[in-house]
Amino acid sequence: ELKQLQKDKNMGAWNVYAALYGDPVSIEHNWNIVKSVFADNKKAQFFTEDELGDDPIFKYRAKLMRGDPTLQEFSLYNWKGGGGSMWFAPVSPAEGKHTLVQQELATKIMNKHGFDYVGEMQRAKECYTELVQEFAKLGYGVYRTHVGAMDEVSETYGPVIKDVFHKLKKALDPNNILAPGKSGIDLSVYESNVK
After folding, report:
1. Burial label, 104 (beta-carbon count in 10 A; 0-12, 13-18, 19+)
2. Bridge partners of residue 90, in order along the sequence
3. Rounded CA gap, 145 and 73, in Å?
4. What share of residues in the chain are helix, strand, coil (percent, to 5)?
5. At residue 182, what are phi and psi to the nearest 5 degrees?
6. Which is more confidently placed, 25 or 107?
7. pLDDT for 129-176, tens place per residue?
8. What is the pLDDT of residue 179?
9. Angle value at C-alpha 128, between 125 and 131, nearest 5 degrees
10. Nearest Cα to 88, choosing from 142, 39, 34?
11. How far apart are alpha carbons 7 and 182 in whole angstroms?
12. Distance between CA 18 and CA 20 in Å, rounded?
């Protein structure tokens, strides 16, 4: 289905929406740099607002990049009714080899659990847990997660960084008023373990 969609829409497997910011001279300079990076790639195509300005997907992305808030992406949750989100957002160095490692690992784990991107809650939780654990084994941290997995993700960073976070929390919020327990940082538990 994806291959047919690519053929029907004359699109590649990867589609990137991006914006350049600054004065006109800087934008033109940076746009030339972007195009030069893809100069040897005969399949790469560029479309600007001149060509795609009326396309609803392009309009939506352009609004986001201008800083106009929208809740449009949350409509994805309504395809089955009563949906929610579970974020898995690993971090890696900005090198292609890491992208390929992460893509292969995520595809393997998600397919094992019967997923592409959206699915059932129990399988999603099991899949998410395995993604967090297996990526952590390879040294990839998760930079943000949903509240249901904060402790799980926090554990992957180990005791040293958790101790640093607790000390920062104690210094900045000694009464533990701001988001107690968020991201695995619970001063009451920490202080009882330190004593």
Report:
1. exposed
2. 142
3. 17
4. 60, 5, 40
5. -65, 140
6. 25
7. 999 999 999 999 998 888 788 889 999 999 898 889 889 999 999 888
8. 84
9. 155
10. 142
11. 46
12. 7
